[in-house]
Amino acid sequence: MRVILLGTPGGGKGTQAKLICEYFDIPHISTGDIFRGKIKEGTAEGKEISEYTGKGQLVPDRLTIALVEERLKKDDCKKGFLLDGFPRDEKQAQALDEIMNKKNEQINFVFLIDVPKEIIVDRILGRRVCPKCGESYHIKYNPPKVPGNCDVCGTALIHRADDQEEIILDRLAIYNQTTAPILEFYEKKGILHKIKGDGGIQDIFAQISEILKKA
C-alpha cells in the first residue's frame, strides 16, 4: 500500500498520517521530519534546509527529491509507505513517478484533505510542537495534558517561527498556485480521492480508512 497525503499547511496531514500508518502498519514519510532530522544532524543539507525554512520559504525541488528518494530506498518501505508533504508540485510528482518506476512500483492512493483557509489559519496559529520528539499539539483542539509540555517526553513545547499569520498566508498562496497541476496529474491516473477536512479528526480518518479498506 503506497499512499500520498496532500493538503495545505495546517490541514491535518500529519495527524491523519499517524492514524493511517498505525492502523495499516506502514511507515510515515514526512518531508518535514526528514528536513528536521537533517537540521538536527548538522549536515550541509541541514544547514541549507534551515536557511529556507527559517524564512518561511520552500526547500528547493532538487534537494527535496533527493532526500525522499534516499528515504524510499530503506527496507521498511518494501511493504508500502505513506508520503506526507510530498509531492508539492508537478515536477515532484513526475520525479516520484520516476523513482517508483525504478522500483517497479506505483502509487496506489492519493488523498487530498480539503480545508477552508480560515480554519487552517486558526489551526496553525494555535499549533505547538515538541522540539525533541516532534509531537504536535493545539492550544484549543488538542492541548497537552500538562500545559506547555509534551505528553510523550515532557519537553517544553514551542511555537515555531514560521507559524505566524503573514507567513501562513504566503505559504497558502504558494500552495494554491502549485496544487492544481498535481491534482490533475493524479486525477488522470484515477487514484485521487478528495476528503472533506473541516470535521473532526476521527471523521476525516473514517473517510480515508473506508476507501483503503475496500482495496
Automatic annotation (TrEMBL):
<keyword id="KW-0418">Kinase</keyword>
<feature type="binding site">
    <location>
        <position position="92"/>
    </location>
    <ligand>
        <name>AMP</name>
    </ligand>
</feature>
<protein>
    <recommendedName>
        <fullName>Adenylate kinase</fullName>
        <ecNumber>2.7.4.3</ecNumber>
    </recommendedName>
</protein>
<dbReference type="InterPro" id="IPR006259">
    <property type="entry name" value="Adenyl_kin_sub"/>
</dbReference>
<feature type="binding site">
    <location>
        <begin position="57"/>
        <end position="59"/>
    </location>
    <ligand>
        <name>AMP</name>
    </ligand>
</feature>
<keyword id="KW-0862">Zinc</keyword>
<feature type="binding site">
    <location>
        <begin position="85"/>
        <end position="88"/>
    </location>
    <ligand>
        <name>AMP</name>
    </ligand>
</feature>
<feature type="binding site">
    <location>
        <position position="130"/>
    </location>
    <ligand>
        <name>Zn(2+)</name>
    </ligand>
</feature>
<feature type="binding site">
    <location>
        <position position="127"/>
    </location>
    <ligand>
        <name>ATP</name>
    </ligand>
</feature>
<dbReference type="GO" id="GO:0004017">
    <property type="term" value="F:AMP kinase activity"/>
</dbReference>
<keyword id="KW-0479">Metal-binding</keyword>
<keyword id="KW-0545">Nucleotide biosynthesis</keyword>
<feature type="binding site">
    <location>
        <begin position="136"/>
        <end position="137"/>
    </location>
    <ligand>
        <name>ATP</name>
    </ligand>
</feature>
<feature type="binding site">
    <location>
        <begin position="10"/>
        <end position="15"/>
    </location>
    <ligand>
        <name>ATP</name>
    </ligand>
</feature>
<feature type="binding site">
    <location>
        <position position="153"/>
    </location>
    <ligand>
        <name>Zn(2+)</name>
    </ligand>
</feature>
<feature type="binding site">
    <location>
        <position position="171"/>
    </location>
    <ligand>
        <name>AMP</name>
    </ligand>
</feature>
<keyword id="KW-0963">Cytoplasm</keyword>
<dbReference type="InterPro" id="IPR027417">
    <property type="entry name" value="P-loop_NTPase"/>
</dbReference>
<feature type="region of interest" description="LID">
    <location>
        <begin position="126"/>
        <end position="163"/>
    </location>
</feature>
<feature type="binding site">
    <location>
        <position position="31"/>
    </location>
    <ligand>
        <name>AMP</name>
    </ligand>
</feature>
<comment type="subunit">
    <text>Monomer.</text>
</comment>
<feature type="binding site">
    <location>
        <position position="36"/>
    </location>
    <ligand>
        <name>AMP</name>
    </ligand>
</feature>
<feature type="region of interest" description="NMP">
    <location>
        <begin position="30"/>
        <end position="59"/>
    </location>
</feature>
<keyword id="KW-0067">ATP-binding</keyword>
<dbReference type="InterPro" id="IPR000850">
    <property type="entry name" value="Adenylat/UMP-CMP_kin"/>
</dbReference>
<dbReference type="Pfam" id="PF05191">
    <property type="entry name" value="ADK_lid"/>
</dbReference>
<feature type="domain" description="Adenylate kinase active site lid">
    <location>
        <begin position="127"/>
        <end position="162"/>
    </location>
</feature>
<feature type="binding site">
    <location>
        <position position="199"/>
    </location>
    <ligand>
        <name>ATP</name>
    </ligand>
</feature>
<dbReference type="Pfam" id="PF00406">
    <property type="entry name" value="ADK"/>
</dbReference>
<comment type="function">
    <text>Catalyzes the reversible transfer of the terminal phosphate group between ATP and AMP. Plays an important role in cellular energy homeostasis and in adenine nucleotide metabolism.</text>
</comment>
<comment type="pathway">
    <text>Purine metabolism; AMP biosynthesis via salvage pathway; AMP from ADP: step 1/1.</text>
</comment>
<comment type="similarity">
    <text>Belongs to the adenylate kinase family.</text>
</comment>
<feature type="binding site">
    <location>
        <position position="133"/>
    </location>
    <ligand>
        <name>Zn(2+)</name>
    </ligand>
</feature>
<dbReference type="InterPro" id="IPR033690">
    <property type="entry name" value="Adenylat_kinase_CS"/>
</dbReference>
<keyword id="KW-0808">Transferase</keyword>
<feature type="binding site">
    <location>
        <position position="150"/>
    </location>
    <ligand>
        <name>Zn(2+)</name>
    </ligand>
</feature>
<dbReference type="InterPro" id="IPR007862">
    <property type="entry name" value="Adenylate_kinase_lid-dom"/>
</dbReference>
<keyword id="KW-0547">Nucleotide-binding</keyword>
<feature type="binding site">
    <location>
        <position position="160"/>
    </location>
    <ligand>
        <name>AMP</name>
    </ligand>
</feature>
